[in-house]
Amino acid sequence: MIEARGLTRLPLRNVAFVACWCLLVISLIGLSFSLIWLLGVVVFGGLVLLGLHDVRQRKRTVSRNYPVLAHIRYFLESIGPEIRQYFIQSDLDERPFSREQRALVYQRAKNESDKKPFGSLRDMYQPGHEWINHSLRPHSIEDADFRVQVGGRRCTQPYLASVFNISAMSFGSLSGNAIEALNAGASKGGFYHDTGEGSISRYHRLHGGDLVWEIGSGYFGCRHEDGTFNAERFAANAVDDQVKMIEIKLSQGAKPGHGGILPAAKVTAEIAEAREVPMGQDVISPASHSAFSTPLELMSFIGQLRTLSGGKPVGFKLAIGHPWEWFAIVKAMLESGERPDFIVVDGGEGGTGAAPLEFINRMGVPLTEALTLVHNTLVGVGLREEIRIGAAGKITSGFNIARTMALGADWCNAGRGFMFSLGCIQALNCHSDKCPSGVATQDPNRSRHLDIADKTDRVYNFHRNTLKALAEMLGAAGLSHPSELGPEHIIRRVSENEIQSYDQMFTFLKPDELLTGKCEHTVFKQYWEDARSDSFLPSSRIARLRLTKLE
Question: SS3 letters for 242-256?
């Protein structure tokens, strides 16, 4: 307080507001002498009106207590992420991607040199540091176009997939120009583009790039008016030559177990066309599927989709949650004789979808543990040779691909990495429709500035240069193909004076070990026997529910 003669006169917090009044009065007086004071009248008059609004409104206590002055605080708070990202954050702070990771993508996408001088910025003696050991017999790999065939014995149209592809990102989440550039880059580079659950839009079709059609719980592109699965609409889209594989989305790393609503106001004519939904209505993606409710029904659905698609590979994507639910799916494979052709494991550290903070930070198993569980389970029941595994979770470099494949993946997908190649600057405005780079927005005034031809080349270059870097690493390690990578090739520092290879750190099951009943791995020992093929609930839970009903 400013006090004089024992009287309370003016709280300091109101000084800015009072100063604006004083300057407005001075400007009004000055206006009688010169028109130049009109600028002061406009500026300080506006600030006075702002202050009057602050003291009269009731939603923001800070603004009522600090009229005018509070807006400086709001402004600084609004640009806090940018201040940290551009001026405070170090090159190695992954929040969620480090400057080093983003710069690598930008350089490779632009075909610029990605070489660095003067050694690593990383502390190689810090626990968690990882590397791949080199060989004393290195060699050069001429062709970095690494491929893996997807499609089991039930599949009549197998697909030869690149080991690095574009992860699921829907039209609606990304702009039409972004989708078009991604697909054109995929077409040019010969890798696949996952549609995301928003179905196949006109922008996916313009350049003919290979598509993996993701079928989510909303069944967009293959639904009845009530939102249930429509087999006829599915068949009509699935037999398209551009669609190479079908992926059932069970859950995603960004928000596992969470549905979604696209408000009617955001359903444009193009989104309605792609998703085959009416205009003027909210579009709902339920948290779970209506076409199946048990693991055995899921296997039946997989078989149905394979038949309707003309024998194309059919699989599913999931983020691992309760282990007994994953085990129940595997038991359904064994009991029914039906198999998915592939499984894509989405790490809990994903992804491109906006989600509540609790889901982003605290829901879903991270990729390393999720992938090893899926790989181990399929090995342990003798199905690993029949089923291919894809993996997604912060993949931006050749080493990311190498470590992921060493843990058991057959290929990798990237979402945010390819967004960076389009020019994404990690502004973290993906959900606000205010993406500054025109990537994650439906605002035509923003997205139209994304040059499709330029970004097509960047998508292609990022893919090509990343695989080239992977080939160089493999050659230095004495290997010829990423399929030769094993857990023994990746090393992690676990303490200041101890390192371990992945095969020492993680337990890897032997073929058919789960079927013998002698597996001592903790997770399998606790939950494998409790899982059942006819329910996602464990046997113990079902027994308790029955007992409760009897009581």
Answer: CEEEEEEECCCCCCC
State how far the Cα of 317 lies from the Cα of 59, in Å rounded to an integer.
43
pLDDT band at 185 (very low <50, low <70, confident <90, very high): very high
Phi, then psi, of 387 in degrees rounded to 5: -120, 125
Q: Which two tokens stand for residue 159?
A: 């697909």
Give exposure, 214-232, as e/b (b: 16+ Cβ within 10 Å): bbbbbbbbbbeeebebbee
Give the helix/strand (H/E) hosting 335.
helix 323-336
Q: What is the pLDDT of residue 351?
A: 66
**Dihedral in degrees, nearest 10, Cα atoms 282, 285, 288, 289:** 100
3 state SS of 435: coil
Pairing of strands 211-215, 243-249: parallel
Whole-angstrom CA distances from 488 to 73, 355, 474, 484 are 53, 36, 14, 11
pLDDT band of residue 59 (cuts 50, 70, 90) is confident
Would you say 306 and 333 are in contact if contact means Cβ atoms under 8 Å apart? no
- Between residues 530 and 540, which one has the greater pLDDT? 530
456: closest CA among 209, 221, 268, 242? 209
Omega of the bond leading into 96 within 30 degrees of 0 (cis): yes
Question: What DSSP string describes 186-206?
Answer: HHHHT--EE--TT---HHHHS
User: Could you give the count of Cα atoms lying within 13 Å of 179 in the half-sphere of its Cβ?
Assistant: 28
Q: Which residues contact 548 (CB under 8 A, 6 or more apart)?
A: none
Q: Kindly report, residue by residue over 28-43, the tens digit of the pLDDT.
A: 999 888 889 999 999 9
Q: Which two tokens stand for residue 327?
A: 């085990």
Query: What pLDDT is attached to residue 549?
Result: 60
Answer yes or no: are the C-beta atoms of 248 and 302 closer than 8 Å: yes
**Tokens at residue 453, please?**
């031809």
Amino acid in the structure at residue 329: I
Q: What pLDDT was estimated at residue 329?
A: 98
- How far apart CA 377 and CA 369 sit, in angstroms, is 12
Length of the chain: 551
Q: What is the DSSP string of 286-311?
A: -SS-SS-SSHHHHHHHHHHHHHHTTS
Q: What is the pLDDT of residues 447-475, one digit of tens each?
A: 888 999 999 999 999 999 999 999 999 99
Handedness of CA 101, 104, 105, 106 (dihedral sign): positive
**Cis peptide, bond prior to residue 259, ω within 30 of zero:** no
Residue corresponding to tokens 């193009």: 270
Which residues make beta-bridge pairs with 391?
345, 412
- The pair of structure tokens assigned to 206 is 């313009």
Using alpha carbons, select from 364, 428, 362, 371 the residue that is nearest to residue 395: 371
Q: Which amino acid is at 19?
A: A
Which residue type sits at 60? Answer: R
Q: What angle do CA 279, 317, 462 make, to 5 degrees?
A: 90
- Tokens 């994507």 map to which residue? 317
pLDDT of 6: 42
If you search the block for the tokens 């996408």, which residue do you land on? 109
Distance, CA of 48 to CA of 18 (rounded, Å): 9
Does the bond joining 11 to the residue before it have cis omega, within 30 degrees of 0? Answer: no
